[in-house]
Design brief:
By secondary structure, this protein is an alpha+beta fold. Helix 1 crosses helix 2 and helix 2 runs antiparallel to helix 3. The termini are far apart. The chain binds FE2/S2 (inorganic) cluster (FES). The site of FE2/S2 (inorganic) cluster has 12 residues, from helix 6.
């Protein structure tokens, strides 16, 4: 890459560059680097993975392989608010399916669509959130809500809408 292109890429990916520097561009720190980068973009864009690969002197395939292996990494854009609905056994028997249905209906997420058109919400089912005693459980951006009813879940969405419109 010529110096001008390298400088332009560095400007474009300034935050990624700072994260790479934070970890001294150590390729053994790829996972924490990807975690930090995902916090910036809320997912891992392909062009960013290529930039990271260059910065760590790894092949893009290696970086993509790690990013696609772990469920916590997303290669797709996600909404500002990520709602995880637990469908593990404890939550399932307490009606988590109805919570997910209510959320999807409220957010107009049909046919397996996970993210709203305005990129405000992503709704995903997960297998266990580690709070089975509070079943049924959801998280919104990792904040845990227990003993959730469909009505409560809808209210949480309404509260976020109200906050966002203030
Ligand atoms: S099964 Fe839902 S939190 Fe564990």
């Amino acid at each position: 890459m010529c110096p001008e292109c390298k400088e332009a890429a560095t400007r474009k990916f300034e935050k990624v560059c700072q994260i790479l520097d934070k970890y001294q561009r150590d390729s053994s720190k790829l996972i924490p680097i990807l975690q930090d980068v995902q916090k910036v973009y809320r997912y891992l864009p392909e062009e960013v993975l290529v930039y990271i690969a260059t910065g760590l002197d790894l092949s893009p395939a290696k970086v993509y392989g790690v990013a696609s292996f772990y469920a916590n990494f997303s290669l797709e854009p996600k909404g500002k608010y990520v709602v995880h609905v637990c469908d593990g056994t404890a939550c399932h028997v307490k009606g988590s399916e109805h919570i997910k249905e209510a959320l999807c209906k409220k957010l107009n997420l049909n046919n397996g669509k996970k993210t709203t058109d305005d990129m405000l919400f992503t709704v995903e089912a997960v297998s266990c959130l580690g709070a089975c005693g509070l079943a049924p459980v959801i998280t919104i951006n990792e904040k845990v809500y227990g003993q959730v009813t469909p009505e409560m879940a809808e209210k949480l969405i309404e509260n976020i809408w109200a906050e966002e419109n203030n």
